[in-house]
Amino acid sequence: MFKIVDKSIISADEMVVNMGPQHPSTHGVLRLKIITDGEIVSNVEPIIGYLHRCFEKHCESLSYEQIVPFTDRCDYLASMHMSHSYSMAVEKLLNLELPERVEYIRVIVAELQRIASHLIAVGVFGLDVGAITPFTWTLRDRERILDLFEMLCGARLLYNYVWPGGVSHDLPPKFIQKTHEFLDYFLPQIDEYNQVLTSNKIFIERSADVGVLPLDVGINYGVTGPSLRGSGSTFDLRKDEPYSVYDKFDFDVPVGEGLMGTVGDCWDRYYVKVLEMKESAKIIRQALDAIPPGDVHEVLPKKIRPPKGEVYSRYESARGDVGFYIRSAGKNMPDRLKMRSPAYCNLSVLNEISEGWMMSDVIAALGSLDIVLGEIDR
């Protein structure tokens, strides 16, 4: 017989501490209800919903074209990934085959966005455990990517760039040259991050062998992306279920190896993101060198009215496996839309990797999961 423990009942030696929703270390409007005995944590309950905007229900009253800007606002640190994943679902519903130039452009901006998102994740994680300098460096380098996006579509955070059937603009003059220049500058910077943060003795003591996520536990909780790959899994949709033109590129899937002997700790989840930035740069270079000519608006539909049916589309975002389920009733707006948020599933494992650790370690564990509340709450 399983013994059911009611964790809402606390002993005389325990107390409840609320961390957030207005707390710099909760990465947004998240409240953590922490039961603690002194400094030792016995339970963590994430309280979400402070940023809820009824995104999925709202989509039932919007046309397919009007939904794109709202997808951008789900994961606002990787907006290109959200609009790309949604557009792929709509294109699957329409049975559209895109020009190769569109696919190459999408891969280029998706991998630039992955680097930009991971820069925030790496910098903020360092900040969470007390390292200020790397955060200023990652912000500086992220600005260079935002300069490229501004050149591309005029926006720096919410882009409305990837549309069902194509993209809003073709690449501007000198974009390819400027992107190559950025990559030439950026790759040596990763080595500097490693010198000042990755190999830092204090950083290692705060993150290695802390918040260990066993691979089977991560799989059972539905954890995906760098958070699962940090536990040793090689699963990456770009490799295992290739979409767009990812099957044309040569890149590796970094996994956690356990710096101090234990695979799946906070350091592993951090370092996988560092290595993924190098792999993204590798993909971008290959795409820039092989991008074909063509019209990016060639198959862009003037009016989207898919036939009756339903689809589910998957996408490897900066945080993991994004899914869009769309049911069409044959109208110009979806009958039902549901989004699978990888950050939501990743956050659900927080108690598993925090129980028994100290209060300060909860901050490290949460930061290593790299959540975005706009995507979780929707």
Describe, in short, the structure shown.
47% of the residues lie in helices and 12% in strands. Strands 1-2-3 form a three-stranded antiparallel beta sheet.
What does this structure look like?
By secondary structure, the chain is an alpha+beta fold. It has one domain (53-372): Cytochrome-c3 Hydrogenase, chain B (Orthogonal Bundle), CATH 1.10.645. It has 15 helices and 8 strands. It has helices spanning 55-58, 64-72, 79-94, 100-128, 133-153, 175-198, 201-207, 215-220, 226-229, 237-240, 266-290, 342-347, 350-354, 359-369, 373-377; strands spanning 15-19, 31-37, 40-47, 162-163, 166-167, 309-316, 321-328, 336-340. The strands form 3 sheets. A 3-stranded antiparallel β-sheet has the order 1-2-3. It has a 3-stranded antiparallel β-sheet with strand order 6-7-8, with helices on one face. Helix 4 packs antiparallel against helix 11. The longest helix is centred in the N-terminal third of the chain and has 29 residues, at 100-128. It is globular and about 65 Å long. The protein starts with 14 loop residues before the first strand and ends with a helix. 44% of the residues are buried. The model is unreliable at 1-5 (pLDDT under 50).
Provide the gyration radius in Å: 21 Å
| CATH architectural designation | Orthogonal Bundle
Number of helices: 15
At the third CATH level, what is the topology name? Answer: Cytochrome-c3 Hydrogenase, chain B
Question: How many DSSP-defined strands?
Answer: 8
Taking the sheet with the most strands, its summary is: 3 strands, antiparallel
The secondary structure category is: alpha+beta
The fraction of residues in strands falls at: 5-15%
**Number of structural units classed as domains:** 1
CATH superfamily: Cytochrome-c3 Hydrogenase, chain B
Please tell me the overall pLDDT: 90
Instruction: Please provide the ordered H/E string of secondary-structure elements.
Output: EEEHHHHHEEHHHHHHEEEHHHH
- Rough outline: globular
Helix content: 40-55%
